[in-house]
Specification:
heterodimer; A: alpha/beta; Rossmann fold; 6-stranded mixed beta sheet; 32% helix; globular; B: 0% strand
Amino acid sequence: MRDARCVVPADDGGTRTIFEGINLDIIGGHITDITGPSGCGKSTLLTTIARLNPGGSARMSLDGTDSTTMNPQQWRLRVAYVNQRPVLMGETIRETLLFPWTLAVRKDDAGAARPTDDELRQALDRAGLADISLDRPVHDVSGGQYARVALLRTLLTRPRVLLADEVDAALDDASDAQIEKLIAEAAQAGMAVVRVRHRASDGLEDRLLRLENSTLTDITGAVSKAVGSTGTAAGTTAASADAGQMPDRGTPSSAQSGTNAGRSAR
Amino acid sequence: MKYYAIDQWGLLVALLMVLAAAGLAAYMRLHVSGSLLLSCLRSFLQLVAMGFILGWVIKQGTWYIVVALVALMITASVQITISRASGIPQGLGWPIFLTQFITTLLMVGIVAEGIVRPKPWYSPQVIIPITGMMLGNTVGATAVGLTRFYESMKSRQDEIESMLALGATPWEASRPSVLSSVKLGLTPTIATLASSGIVMIPGMMAGQVLAGANPVNAAVYQFVILAAMSSLTLVSTALILRLVYRTCFTTDDQYKPVVPRQKTSRGLGKAGKAGKAVAKKA
């Protein structure tokens, strides 16, 4: 992503620039966390990447394909945003999980096979939702379960990039742990994950970026030392945060370059 | 066939009834006495004016005067729809006009020319009342449908954004709001259909019976009009929402909350009430 910019109408009738000149490379299989003070535009950055923000604009490409060659639906199919207040559509858990397959964009996409009941069941079990039947009414689940079902709905569509916007906000620790597990599994399967989080680091991230004053800074080393987790490779990955110059891709570590370079989502 | 005209004493009694109702409302502190009297006076003037105009148009008996009057009614109905709907954005005039124009065309084409078949084809005594009844109904349905649609889209913002993020098109994301709005817009029409003949005699049938027509003929007439009106009300509400749902999205299929247009003047409110009067008259 190059030159991401977001300009929104301000309360005084003029416009306010939330950020501009932000560059970011996202790599398949990696988890990137974005932190920053409240109101710095973390969510805005994610919705801009998903092409969901009316004020946002950016030059983006995915696996070498320019975003402008895809219509918004095709792009969002691959770059999936999960918002802070997800809404489960339909009457039952089954309906809500299958909702993505009722949409036109997946009807003419051969690669998007609709999951069977068995697959849905297995997915729920893996998410620690074994006690929830597919026929359970949507409004009859707890907050933590609701968030997990919403995340699961997006994960089942197998996007290339998952943009998770505080999906763990206001959850109990058990639900949070389940969400972490789901996201880690998705990343292992090759999905690029970008998270906006408020909680302390859970050690899953390959990179930790800080967004402040329109600048994205890689602070991976600083925090991962303290946590004592993964490390050196992440520090060298290509997160660029400079407003002015075009960053080079950086050098992915040898371990990543083989498996991930090809699915690098930029 | 006997026609019982109403003389000035009848008019006076009707006025006294309104005065009595206004007095009662004042006694109950309902704060509607003023507007009741005002709208009553206005409706009287409008109805009488419409009576004179209709009389003149029927006497002239030329097709272009009929067409001009229908065009005027459609234009007025756009204005009334906009003023009655709340929370709608600017710039809906043309979509509403198009909707009213198409439904009027269908109504006149099918009911007047296809079923009633007056001679000559532009016979004002058929065309004008049918157009009036049609517009009276669609104005209400469109205004209610539009109001509900924008309300619903606003309250479903999180849901719409979730849907768009999953790859929904704007139309797919709007569909639940469109359905509930069409349903709400159609509710009064369905209620009219269901209750007509039992607790009430619809205005048109009542009018024909009062004018001395055969009650069974009047009933059949009324049914044809009701059937056509309910189907066209559905058409008009669905059509207008299809034309305007895009106003909630950007060209890049992003959700964009609409900026409601400002209610500008009392004049618009008056036009709204005037529209009701026209509808009732028809």
